[in-house]
Each structure stands twice: as structure tokens, then as C-alpha cells.
Batch of 4 targets.
Target 1
Amino acid sequence: MMEYRQYGYGVRKNKKALIICGSVFFIVGLVFLVIGIVLMRLDNKKRALCSGEAKGVVVRIDSKRSTDSDGFESTVYAPVVSYTVNGKEYEERSSIYSSPCKFNEGDIAIIHYDPGDPSVMIIEGDNGMKLMYWIFMGMGGIFAITGAGLLIFYRKNSL
């Protein structure tokens, strides 16, 4: 029968690595959580301000091209909508870019606007910001829990 030896590469030898990894994961997780919460609060504040409602028409689709450090090009799109509030016509671009665009030129869209400043608007059904803050909060939670787990594992095995 073969005998196995333990060469001392257990928790005690790697305690510094566990502390560093656990701390980094926990801190990065908290930063992501805070970013997600801030984005959520800003989005909720804008949605609360945009209590007016009007019908709008997508008059064009704006595009934005970008190239990453590897030379990969991508294009994202944002609808530009025209709508009327109190007899004044507004033409505003959505602040949410996506690929592919959720809207086509000529589509009718419900616009929620700020009665104090009708140029501030949200297109109904355009939930790109919600997706973004949920991703930040989800990843932040996973990282923070992983970091806390590593630190707890270290603490329990170092006593």
C-alpha cells in the first residue's frame, strides 16, 4: 500500500496568500456593490423625476464606434426620439447605448419626462441602466462573499 506524505503546503504555509486574496476579493466586492448602489439610486431618482408622459417617435438611431486595446471594433446604438410637451417639440437621444438597438426608426415610444425640464427623459422599456446596476451589485456580492469566505476559512484554520 502506498503511503502519502503531506509536505506542509496547507493553510499555515499559505496564510499570507489567503489574507491577501480574501482582502482583495472583499474590497473589490464592496467597491462594486457601492458602484451598483449609486447607479441604482441615480436611476431611481431620474425615474421619480420623470413623471410626465408623452408619445414619441424614434426619428433616427445614433451610433458610436469604439476600438479596444486589442484592436476589436464595436458599434453601439441609441435611439433619438421626438416628442411634444406643452406645444414645444423636443428631440433627445437616449443615454443608454446598446447593440443591437431595441428600437427602429419610426417606432412609437412612450416617453417619461421631467415636467421641470422636459429634455430629461427616459424611454419606457429601455432598462439598460437597471441591467448595469444589477450586474455591478451581483458581481460585488459574489466577490465580497468569496473574500469573506476566504478570510473566515483562514481564521478558522489558523487557530
Target 2
Amino acid sequence: MNYCWEYIEKKNVRGDDLYELIGAEDDNIVYLQAEAEEEKDIRIWDCVIDSVALLVERHMKYIMNNYLKL
């Protein structure tokens, strides 16, 4: 999750790295959600997944806006 804060503060994290937090390898957020047993914990992971996905979307819009200005 440090990637998310670093992106928010400095915008120096690649979108691919942010996206991999959601679903790459065995230590991603979706994997952690699947391991949760309590419904409350699953809902919390849903919020985390949605937050990271929104950050990825905003990052891509930021990149595209800068690309189109070139």
C-alpha cells in the first residue's frame, strides 16, 4: 500500500505497479480478501480493492492527459 501513498504524494509510481497490487502473485489484495473468513473483513478488502482500482484509473487519466498535451 506504500505504492499508493507514494503515488498520491509524488506521482512517481507506475500504473502497472499499482495495478499489480490488486491481482498479481500470491500476496495481492484479492488473494488477501479470499483468505478472509469474516464477512466484515471481506467488505473491508472490497473497499481497499475499490480504492486501489480508482487510483489506477485516475493514474491512467493523468498519464493520458499529459500524453495528449505533448
Target 3
Amino acid sequence: MILGRISAYLNALKDKNNLTQRQLADMTGIPVGTLPRYFGALDDDAANFEVVSKLVVAMHGSLDELAGIPLRQAEHDESAYKAVVAGLEARLDEKNDRIRHRAELLDDEQQRSERETRRANRATLIACIIGAPPYESPAKRESS
């Protein structure tokens, strides 16, 4: 029965660390009324991974050890974990590079758009100047 193994492991950690259930409840935030189920194997359905992991971590235990994973397997898993992390970091770097490239393209597009707007404004200004009647001084208007 797995819960028997869980409760045996938790009891061994509790004894090793010389902790009371009250202290564990305070450390983990798990209600003190819930703890006897894990330390006494009273309820098979009560074995919640979150609760077990909080207790194991609080008592400086190992979930690998609880699960019966040999140390060599845990070391292998750590190297596999590191490889996965390295792969994910490489993918993040690639995504960051693509995001930077897209930002540069957007900046270039914005600058191009601003240049086109300035050109259009100048062209409009020139058209207004060219299309406007020629400037006549007030003295010339009086003589005509």
C-alpha cells in the first residue's frame, strides 16, 4: 500500500527533524487536523500530492527518495532536466531574437511612414503655394 510507504517516510522525516505535527502545520499551512491522515495512514484517499510534497520539502526530504527512485536515476534525471532547460533557454533566445527583429522592422516602417508623411505635407504645401494667386503688394492693388 503506497500510503503506508508515504506515512512511514513522513514519520521518519518528522522523527529525524524532531518536529511535532503542530510545528509542521505552522511551517506548511496545512491544517493540523489533516496531518494525522498522512502520518497515521488513516485514509487512503487523503494522499494529496500537494500536501505530501509540502511536508517532504518542509522536512528537507526528497520526493525522489519517497518514490523509490535510485540516486543514479535522480542524477540522470537531473542531467535530462538540465538538457531540457538548456533547450528551452535556446528556444527563448531564438524567440527574443525574432521579437527584436520584428521591433526593428516596425521601427523602420514607422520611420518610413513618417518620411512619407513629411513628403506629402511638403507636396501639399507646395501645391497650395503654387495654386494660390500671386502676391501683390497693397500699392500695386491701388494702382490697378
Target 4
Amino acid sequence: MEVIRLDAAALTQRQSAFDTLEAALDLPSWWGRNLDALHDCLTEAPRHIALRNRDLLEGTDFGRRLCRVLEEAAEENPLLELTDAPFRILFLCHGNICRSPMAEFVMKDLVEKAGLAERVEIASAATSTEEIGSPVYPPARRKLAEHGIGCSGKTARQMTAGDVETFDLLIGMDAANLRNMRRLWGEAGEGKVFRLMDFTKTPKDVADPWYTRDFEATWQDVSRGCRGLLDWLQAEI
């Protein structure tokens, strides 16, 4: 069953909520933008709705009413699954064997220690096909291990067209990564595509240790970028 991802930030007011629901749920014309009719629609078909920031709905009268409709429909329809959606981050670099897996596992470690592991999902991918299926490059793996961070089982995979819908943030390591990301995702990636170091006070590329051989410098950049990203997450989610 396809997972329909909704952000409660777009559902707190009637007009924006109805626009969002109409586009996401493919509702029949007879529903007439009516909450009672929405309830009926949701009790008739199998759906999995993953709702992020559900607590935002409690901030408005309309949001509270909509939340009750969703929850009651889920109770009545065993084929309707209503879950809380995690915030999803995808790190990207050229091959997905050095910088982006380092960022993936550093960020997982930080999120775990911050108590956010159940609210944030993290993965990484390549912008190229060159290393698909390869494990994390040994010097990158050793650098993570120096800091007590494992990356067992990780293998490189290429980014896909669907990633832009699955993930909330798409974070490249350098300008070349961003060009490839924007080439694939176009306007759909607007507001989601960033460099890792954009989350620090000194935005720049993370140098590729495949060429520099300086894995310590890459560790320092990745670590600083991930800490900046964690600060942003704690303020936003």
C-alpha cells in the first residue's frame, strides 16, 4: 500500500487543508470539501496516511476537528492506517562510499544521543552509478570507528527520482552534488536541497577524501555540519 505523507503544517487552516487533502488523497468530487464527507471517504478505501507534526493540529479549531475525523476514520476502517511520520534526511555524495555514509552514521549517532531517533530517519545515496553495491570505503569506516561509530552493512545505492518525495531534506556534500541533484529533481527539490555545510556559519563544500586522502579534515567538516543540522532539527521538529 502506498504511504501518503502529509505535513500537519499545511492542514491547520481550512483552505490549505482542503487543497492538500484533495491533491494527496484523490478524493471523489462528491466530498464537497466537507469534513463529514471526508470521514466517509476515508472509511471506504485502504490507505496509509503518515502524518508529520500531528501536534500542530491542536493549535487551531479546524485542525482539532480534522484530527478527530482522521482518528475516528482510522478506528472505523481497519484498512486505514494513520501513523506519525518521521522527518527523513538523505545525504548524498558522488559515490556513497566516503562522505555521505560518514554523514549518515554521524547524524544517526547525534540523533540517537539527542533522543530523536524515533522522530528522524536518515539514509545516504550516490549521485553516480560508479560504486553501487560497494561497502563504505575502509579509511572512512576506520575514521568513524575512531569515534565509536559503526557503519556495518551499508552499501552504496544511487539516488532515485522518488527520493524527492520520500525525504524532507536532501543534503549534498558539494556544489557538483547539488547540480546533479537538481538535474534529476528539478523544481520538486526546491526548499529541500542543501549542502551539509550550509547548516554551519561557514558554508562551503566538504572536500572529497577520495582525492585529498585527508579523512580527518572530512571528519571535521562532516561532524561540524551534522551538529549544525542537529541544531536546526531541534528547532524545527
